[in-house]
Amino acid sequence: MTAKTKSPPLLLGIDTGGTYTDAVLWSEAGGPSGKVLAKAKALTTRHDLAVGISGAVDAVLEMAGTDPAAIKLVSMSTTLATNALVEGQGGRVALVMIGFAEGDLARDGLKAALGTDPVVFCPGGHDVHGNAAKLDLSGLEAALPELEKSVSGFAVCAYFATRNPAHELSARNLIRDRTGLPVTASHELSAKLGGPRRALTTLLNARLISMIDRLVAATEGFLAARNIAAPLMVVRGDGALVSAAFARQRPIETILSGPAASLVGARHMTGLDDAVVSDIGGTTTDVAVLDKGRPRLDPEGATVGGFRTMVEAVAMRTFGLGGDSEVALEDGALNPRILLGPRRLVPLALAGLMHGEAVTSELERQLRAPNPGRMDGRLAVRTGVPERLAAGLTGAEAKLYELIGAVPQALDRLLTSNAQNATLNRLVSRGLVHVAGFTPSDAAHVLGRQANWDAAAARLGAELFARRRDGRGQFIAASPEAISERVLTALTRLSAEVILETAFAEDGLDGAATVAHALVQRAVDAHPGIARLSVALDRPVIGLGASAPLHYAGLAELVGNRCVVPQDTDVANALGAVVGQVRVSAEARVSQPKEGLFRVASGESVRDFNDEAAAIAAAEKDVRAIAAGRAKDAGTDSAEIEIASEFRVSTVEGQRMFIEAHVVAVASGRPRIAV
């Protein structure tokens, strides 16, 4: 009797992007790189993410003819958190600062990130050795009844909480008991010093919780409905995998999730160890560097949307440049340049596909007008998010939000003043409203290089944009085709600029953006000038994204090296999501508040020892246990743990003096799969 050969497990990768949701079915069979059995795309449906997910996954299952029950692991990457920060979106949250002064808001961009969200200051906090000041939460307690009605969550940051989290825990417990709303405490996210930046990271995390929670819930609901009883993993910003439950509590760690997954996918598909990876999506272009087969990580923390966080992630530069970028015109110039991004619009072609005549009739009406209008080709529509996320609107915002419905409305009829335009922008920033308008995706439809949406709506938008006036009062383009060519040329040129800017920044050069712009401008200019300038990357570019074959076709001559666009570039994120590993860490600090006393701060505990060796041993034991627990929570049962210790000491009159020790445990392993 011949023994049955066990089939390799099937893994399902999903990437939920700003415009598309991708799915890929992958098997470990077929050699070291495995095999892509099927791949598919569906539009991301922000009002109900399960719709887009089901569209992509169902298509993959049908193509492969696979029984859903055969899938043993599901892994997901997403650009939703990245896009939200780039576009300034997220829930309204309250920031609780313990032991800080109001002047601390001016540091590290915290005040700008806070915007109009409420902040509560409370006495308390600790010193560098974890010794407590007097905690007073009465102000917070008094504010909770009103805050509960107007925010979706809380962010708590206490002075030196990384050395003693007791006051953050007290505030967190009070808020949870009184409101039941989500609370993020800063010590849960980072062990680094730097209160305002840690507060910024915590604030952004709290804003993202409802968004990632909706994504995970939608995915879990879909998997249950399809009888897929497999663990669900999420890609973090450093390319590692964590369980969905883990990601729900720490959604800030999913910023750059999609781009990080794309790097893993790019390496897997091309076999290139050294490359610049440029991933163009609907909302953003993400550029990073592969060195010796591994992505460079940013030791200072990820920067997204202009904010430097404390999240360890791929050293990725994210630019508001994509197929759905807003197309605008340079103000006041005789020969105005085409400007792209950073805001994402719903392409008119997509709006036309979804809403038909409601869109095209408004565009045709505007075309019949004798003169172009300032708001031509722009429409507003609700995103369809739950009504509770509209809490805390001002009177003007609530009034305008009431007027905007589920069917797109032309802005020239909706808005009656410049003040209302600012109000609309605030609704967009809250993620409550989408604006539809002319984008590079529309330009591609006009030229026949993209054909999946409504080309007629795209053409109407191009006609409206083409009849805008330059500084001489002339139309900026003679035809929809002419303006569309200019838009796509601008996107390729700007793509080269952001790739070179990233390379210059990685080399530590100042003024990277200015130099990149000048070099690319000289490369495309028919009269480059007296000084001859040229530049070339030392490694190829890997172009990722569904539109990369279109927008990167002319890229090589602008960056001075070849551009490789892999066969499965359109699902690189989804593929990268299933070939990664779980990786988590835990940290402890050992300090010496006074001679002969060694204080260990690890996790949520603070303990004192009279012996340095005993304190270090306890710290190592703690981080090993914490890392093992986190690895299990993150989704692996086979974690290998490595511990590293770094000591700060001084020598006084020949004697060694202990100052501080930093102990780190890193646990990594393949995610568990269903049996």
Q: Overview of this structure, please?
A:
- With 675 residues, the protein is α/β, with parallel strands linked by helices.
- Helices cover 37% and strands 25% of the residues.
- The strands form eight sheets. The protein has a six-stranded mixed sheet with strand order 3-2-1-4-9-10, with helices on both faces.
- Helix 9 (348-355) packs across helix 15 and helix 14 crosses helix 15.
- The radius of gyration is 26 Å and the shape is globular.
- The relative contact order is 0.11.
Secondary structure: elements and pairs:
Elements: E1 10-16, E2 20-27, E3 35-43, H1 49-64, E4 71-78, H2 80-86, E5 93-98, H3 110-114, E6 119-122, H4 138-150, E7 153-158, H5 166-179, E8 183-185, H6 195-225, E9 232-235, E10 241-243, H7 244-249, H8 257-270, E11 275-280, E12 285-291, E13 294-295, E14 297-298, E15 303-304, E16 307-308, E17 313-314, E18 317-319, E19 325-329, E20 338-344, E21 346-347, H9 348-355, H10 357-368, E22 379-382, H11 395-403, E23 409-410, H12 411-414, H13 418-429, E24 433-437, H14 440-446, H15 455-466, H16 480-506, H17 512-524, E25 541-544, H18 548-551, H19 556-559, E26 563-564, H20 572-578, E27 582-594, E28 597-602, E29 605-609, H21 612-634, E30 640-652, E31 655-669
